Amino acid sequence: MNKTLLLATCFLVMLFTSCEEYGVQLRIQNNSQFDFKEVSVNNVTFGALSQNKQSHYIPFENIYAKEFVQVVINDKVIKLVPETYHQDHFRTTGNYTYVIDIVNEKYISINFKTD
Description:
This protein is mainly β. Helices cover 15% and strands 47% of the residues. The chain has one domain (22-114): Domain of unknown function DUF5300 (Immunoglobulin-like), CATH 2.60.40.
């Protein structure tokens, strides 16, 4: 009986310590002169976001300093597609903000900020 209880306890401890929650929390800050009708990162939508406002945090398993970002302004879709992903820009834990600006209504500029 004691062995069974000990094994069950060990199993439960291993189960709960091996369960990982999402380690990265990401939010968006609209630093542009436009209201975003929609903004998304890696096809995860943050919804609409007015000028000079921040979204709520959304959990991600991991994030790079620059990811695929899509913004809709004035019925126009603007995309940022990173050319490369650098391992030193890879994050698995922490809270971060993509500070997004729109340049000439054509390009997305991102400042990756640690919160």
